[in-house]
Specification:
Layout (H helix, E strand, L loop, with lengths): L16 H4 L9 E5 L2 H10 L6 E5 L15 H8 L3 E4 L18 E4 L8 E3 L5 E3 L7 H18 L4 H26 L6 E4 L4 H7 L3 E5 L10 H13 L5 E3 L6 H10 L3 E3 L15 H17 L1
Parallel strand pairs: 1-2, 1-3, 3-4, 7-8, 7-9, 9-10
Antiparallel strand pairs: 5-6
The structure holds zinc ion.
Length: about 300
């Protein structure tokens, strides 16, 4: 994950000074930091061609999901030195709760206008599902919220942010329309997921999540929960069990051997993709997901 240079906090008050006296003072950099990779990808798209900004990503999540990320001292420094911190919100980043109120920079919660769905929560009940970016229409809402925030912080470049928003939104709308058309014949298909990140995805395309094997990829299911999921899937089979790219979790292997449901990989777009530019990673992940879904559901 790329980390670009950060400027000291002293410069956070200088935004806008260049608009007053552009010729006599050096332009100051605006340091934007994303809390997680999908938000970083959005920021890269929104700041394309915008002068005097830097974009960083805080959490290098390389396995599992962001829920249990452990912050480092570098992360704390990065946040403190940022003019703007953009978070996914919706409860994805509990590790930021205590630090965000202490920051002098602006915090943009990209989830502020997103309708949340309820999913299985860590404590056995149901709660708001934080994986909102996996839903393309919700990712568009996040982009819009972030763009509004960037324009407030950097009004001199409002036209650039607006043009970037339009371009990114068009790409996402086209992606969504394409996926919805391709998946329309499979509406109502039953699937199982390892991770509730795909609940939004399933809702967008009319798929039914018959069982979700865990709340957090790093926390294994109890034996009782696993047996319950296997019972459900044996009574009413699902066409596929979707797991995150990488090693197949042992509980998914057990479900496969007990139910015969084939395993496929779907990406929640929370990790970088080898050989894919960060700004293009979300669309590339969705393209790969569409190919997988077509294979799994046909
Ligand atoms: Zn997750």
């Amino acid at each position: 994950m790329r980390r670009r240079f950060m400027l000291p906090l002293a410069l956070t008050l200088s935004i806008g000074a260049s608009a007053v006296c552009g010729a006599c003072a050096p332009k100051q950099n605006i340091a934007y930091t994303a809390s997680v990779y999908p938000i970083y990808c959005m920021l890269l798209n929104l700041t394309r061609g915008v002068p005097n900004v830097s974009v960083s990503c805080m959490a290098s999540v390389t396995a599992g999901c962001a829920h249990d990320y452990q912050m480092t001292s570098d992360d704390r420094r990065l946040l403190a030195d940022s003019n703007v911190v953009v978070i996914n919100g919706a409860g994805l980043e509990p590790y930021l709760d205590s630090i965000l109120p202490t920051l002098s920079g602006l915090v943009i919660d990209s989830s502020s206008r997103v309708e949340l769905i309820q999913s299985k929560s860590e404590h056995g009940g149901v709660g708001p599902n934080p994986h909102i970016w996996v839903s393309i229409p919700r990712a568009i809402s996040q982009l819009e919220t972030i763009a509004s925030g960037l324009i407030k912080v950097d009004p001199a470049n409002a036209d650039l942010y607006s043009a970037n928003l339009s371009a990114a939104r068009e790409k996402l709308r086209a992606q969504f329309d394409n996926m919805r058309a391709a998946l329309a014949p499979y509406e109502g298909a039953r699937v199982a997921t390892f991770h509730p990140a795909f609940d939004y995805f399933a809702a967008d395309f009319g798929l039914i999540v018959a069982a979700s094997l865990t709340v957090d990829p790093d926390t294994p299911l109890s034996a009782r929960e696993l047996a319950g999921a296997i019972n459900i899937l044996n009574e009413q089979p699902a066409r596929a069990l979707f797991v995150e790219p990488g090693e197949i979790p042992p509980s998914a292997q057990v479900v496969q051997s007990e139910t015969g449901i084939p395993i496929y990989e779907l990406s929640s777009a929370i990790y970088p993709m080898v050989g894919v530019d960060d700004a293009d990673c979300y669309i590339a992940a969705m393209d790969a997901n569409l190919r997988t879904l077509m294979e799994a559901l046909r």
